[in-house]
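Sequence in, structure out. Go.
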Amino acid sequence: MADGQTGAPGGSRQDDQTVGKGDAGVARDLGWALLPSELDREAAGMLADCPALGSGDAAAAAITTLRDDPEGDVYGWLDGHDLIAVYGLRKAGLSYELLWLAVAPSRRGQRYGRSALVDALRRCGRKPMTVEADESGKGWFEAIGFRTVGRRPGAGGEFRYRMGWYASRLPQEAGYGAH
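Output:
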């Protein structure tokens, strides 16, 4: 592949631009980019499995709400015409929130979720990012470097965890090396 292209998650990212439209809809090079709105229905179907959303209607509403928010964006990994993964990111004051993340069932276990998280962190720069996770997702976020910053009881008696990721300080920043 040419320099700057990627065939799998974790590699270099394509620029956020459309490279062409085919007869069957939007076609893009591999990689993370703003999700075209014509793929919202497919993204909602993928997000319906998220415990925090729970249904296609709730997922569609969440996508619409985020698209209407000037501080939020919906990103997707497209492989030609196939939507592989999707996530929502919103600026919230001085930090960012990862609102939801989903990977197509046929692509789970192939590191697209981790790739989405890395892409979201890259978009945050050095600003903190938070995410809310249930018990099943808590360990996954902890393995990547998130820390639990709070918890609350969920509707069914389970707990929801607020997880945070913070960039480490650079040597030239105040407080570097402080304990």
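Check: The chain has one domain: 26-165. Strands lie at 20-22, 25-27, 32-34, 72-79, 82-92, 95-103, 129-134, 147-153, 159-165.
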